[in-house]
Amino acid sequence: MSVRLACSTALGAVLLLTAPAASAQDARTIAEAEALRDRALESNVAYSLVSELTTRFGPRLAGSTSEQASARWGADQFRAMGFDNVAIESFPLALWERGEARVEILSPFPQPLTVVALGGSIATPPAGIEGEAAIFETYQQLLDQPEGSLTGKIAVVLQDTVQAQDGRGYGATSPVRGQGPTEAARRGAIGYVLRSLGTHDHRFAHTGATRVGEGTVPAFAMSPPDADQLRRLIRLTDEPVRMRLFSTAGFTAQTTSQNVIGEVRGREAPDEVIVIGGHLDSWDLGTGAIDDGAGVAITAAALKLIEDMPRQPRRTIRVVWWGSEEVSQPPPAQGLAGARHYAETRRDQMASHVAISESDFGAGPIYSLGLPAATPPAFRQAALRVLTPLGILNDPAPATGGGPDTGPTVALGVPAFRLNQDGTDYFDTHHTVDDVLDRIDPASMTQNVAAWAAFLWLLADSDVDLRPETSSAP
User: What residue stretch is flagged as signal peptide (predicted)?
Assistant: First the structure.
């Protein structure tokens, strides 16, 4: 027995002795959750899954043949794991392809910049676009400009993304990418360049989705060092900076994406469903290891441990590998095509959905548990008894969402929970060429699997209701 396993087992016993008395069934469920936790700490299923996924299929751009092939492989993995009701559910998708992208400073100090096109952005004319750069330190400075004030210019935003454990720095700057090209076009700009939404100082750029449709312009992200270079450059001269943009990006065909689904059916309440998962698609620069190969592997591995239990949980647990989380779609829809398909095709089943969450924040260690406001205190206490030995604390803030792909389902009234991961360095590699298997720490991934398996067993083997008493699903 490892030192970590011995310590966690001993601490679990102490917590069990000091907690209020539980019923025989509750005590059994807690003991089983602890056993699952400890068994998971010795498992390498998740790392093996993400290793094979990223090695076999590489990048899995939404709607691509690679994403489609990885979905078929995923369904085969679910069947081999013994999951029930395995299915691939397809939906139509517009395929966006990156093509080529170049940005260069023409004057006063000519030089190329390291850039990528933003996902969903449009192409320039074949000869490219040239114009004076209107450079803003912050996105708000751009928004403060009146309509028409940037006519014929290229808008450039240099705002940094602040590093934070919970990723809130990215949340604060994501409108710079998602809405920036549209806002620049509204003010007359002919192109848009932003500092990548990254927290590192390496010379590679971050892609990511922007809003698509009419009223936008060709849009690019430059690497953080190139943004810093541009800052230095404008301090050296009073001359206007002229730039040239070139891109062949755009939507090229109608295709399909898909969700991959499997279940462990409940023994007593099979119609009560807990939904977990991650998104199978990735950007086309790296191999989608942290975003989100890690998440699909963590949740599937956790469910496999539960499937291997001597008895089934009381409720059903459903794992979904959502398709097309990353790429925006033409209006009226935008992103989250797979998540929207899942929710819309099950709109009449929302009342039987117990809870939903996904793993979509890399493979950093889980440090806190977030539960809905209506969670019974006794259930929260039981969960923390099991998770505390993994270094997981209570998050007192009510969970209002379980990750991007849970949004459409949560909007229909389903409660969400969060197993919050340490994402301090997540945005160092997110959406870049450096999102590869080497960025995953196997030990941290194992801790994730242990937390997911143990918590899911507690929730699935209970009758706890996480909805507010006044809530009713549509």
Answer: 1-24
Whether 42 and 151 map to the same domain: the answer is: no
User: Is the peptide bond preceding residue 292 cis, with omega within 30 degrees of 0?
Assistant: yes
The tokens describing 323, both together, are 């398709």
DSSP 176: H
- Specify which residues 253 forms β-bridges with: 95
Over residues 252-297, the pLDDT tens digits come to 999 999 999 999 999 999 999 999 999 999 999 999 999 999 999 9
Cβ pair 358, 240 in contact under 8 A: no
How many Cα atoms are found within 13 Å in the side-chain-facing hemisphere of 159? 21
Last residue of a domain, one of 248, 281, 314: 248
Amino acid identity at 52: E
Q: What is the pLDDT of residues 426-460, one digit of tens each?
A: 999 999 999 999 999 999 999 999 999 999 999 99
Are residue 59 and residue 119 in the same domain, yes or no?
Answer: no
- Do 225 and 260 belong to one domain? no
Element (H, E) at 177: helix 168-178
CA distance 353 to 340: 15
Structural domain count of the chain: 2
Query: Nearest-CA neighbor of 423 among 97, 198, 226?
Result: 198
Is 88's pLDDT higher than 70? yes
Same domain assignment for residues 205 and 62: no
The answer on 333 and 413 residing in a single domain is yes
- Expressed as residue numbers, the domain containing 238 is 99-248
